[in-house]
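Sample entry follows:

:::
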Amino acid sequence: MFKFFKYTLSTVSGFTRNNSSSVAASPNSLIYCSNVVKQHDYENFLATLLMTKAIRTPALVVRAFNVEVARVQDQTSDPQTAAFRVQFWLDVLNDIYKKEQNVSNIPANPVAKELFKICKCYNLPKRHLEKLVLSRSSLLKSRYFRTLEDIEKYADDTVSSIYHLLLMVAGVADIHADHAASHLGKSQGLTNILRSVHVSNHHKMVALPMDILVKNNVSQEDVLRGIDSEKMRNVAFEVASRAYSHLEKARKIQTPKTSNQIFLPATAVDFYLNKLQKNNFNIFDKSLHQGNATLPFKLYYNRLVNKY
């Protein structure tokens, strides 16, 4: 197991479907993509390493693109600079989907170059990639969610879209798998909101839904100051309950076996939600922000038994 998780060049190989010399994968660019995911999205990185070789490389590229867009908020506090960076990725997508486009015309960014190649190799639709960018662009402007349903929509656009893309890479065209991907994406997105409260606070942003905060008489200031209270725990309970409900719905759907490896990140979602429950829904508990040493074992076991 430990040998498998040791990161080497063989982890990222060239593409297989519709491959040609004009879109051959670049080892240096692929390593860059993998390192970006490893550094900023470690749990999904581990899950991706356990995918079959044919899916693993394009999955790392898609996740690297997602990381680069998601990091715009972390890289600058200036709204105009953030807008420019978001526009860069929108322009990249427009360049990628121009007719008879060539990789030499794609901006000299390793993620952009590799994204072009996998889009061409796997005929990935633009809409899912565009959702990743536009949804985060909207959040940068509004900086809050009105309702729990707004978070679900955001999660569907940003997380479920990744699963839909990876299903396409794997050649899984199945309505049940798409349905499961939507539920799992919402579950993971809601969980990410809970997990990132302390990060959002650093940016002076309250990502928890305003309607639930108001219902439980919790102010934004309470969230920003990290004040634990029974009311705050009730807020966390409502969000976590919805996240767990989506996770359970996803797991009950019968999907092609190939899709199970793509949905493997559900293991980390399940772990966090259970740990949050054991901590009586105190989202400010420091133990929730610590790394999970047993996650690689859990991921490896679930991959062996082909479940998520």
